[in-house]
Design goal:
Elements: E1 2-10, H1 15-27, H2 34-55, E2 63-71, E3 74-81, H3 89-92, H4 109-116, E4 119-125, E5 129-137
Antiparallel strand pairs: 1-2, 2-3, 3-5, 4-5
Helix pairs in contact: 1-2, 2-4
EC number: 2.7.11.1
Keywords: ATP-binding, Kinase, Nucleotide-binding, Serine/threonine-protein kinase, Sporulation, Transferase
Protein name: Anti-sigma F factor
Length: 148
């Protein structure tokens, strides 16, 4: 099965749940396990939260765009913002690094995403935004087990 979708929404914290739930609904035809759903939702949540909080500082007017593509049993997803960008991507991806300690941010977002995704890449340009891309492969479901 192949499919794709794009969702854009205003950069407010409440829309992190919208993105998480929309993307979870999108992958349901893959018949993911509870563990796979949990991991996927966590990756989406972390990537979208980073765009809202760090990319746009919750400005409430800029857009975050999430695009997901299903090919066979693999999902490729991008989370894009056109916000401030990341000064040093390598440093930002280090465990415990945060630019928002006053917001009780642990600095583990990228580490968590890396641990649950098959692959993760981050492209960022100061003043032009950030693209977080990840891939996650789901356990194949035998055709005989699929609901019709």
């Amino acid at each position: 099965m192949n499919n794709e979708m794009t969702l854009s929404f205003v950069a407010i914290e409440e829309n992190e749940a919208l993105a998480r739930m929309a993307m979870t609904c999108f992958i349901t035809p893959l018949d993911p396990t509870i563990e796979e759903i949990s991991e996927f939702k966590t990756i989406v949540s972390e990537a979208v939260t980073n765009a809202i909080i760090h990319g746009y500082e919750c400005d409430g007017k800029s857009l975050v765009t999430v695009r997901a593509v299903i090919e066979e049993n693999k999902v490729t997803m991008t989370v894009r913002d056109e916000g401030m960008g990341i000064f040093d991507v390598e440093q930002a991806m280090e465990p415990m690094f945060t630019t928002r300690p006053f917001m009780e941010r642990s600095g583990m977002g990228f580490t968590i995403m890396e641990s649950f995704a098959d692959s993760l890449s981050v492209e960022s340009v100061l003043g032009n935004g950030t693209i977080v891309k990840f891939e996650k492969t789901f356990s194949p479901v035998p055709e005989a087990s699929r609901m019709r």
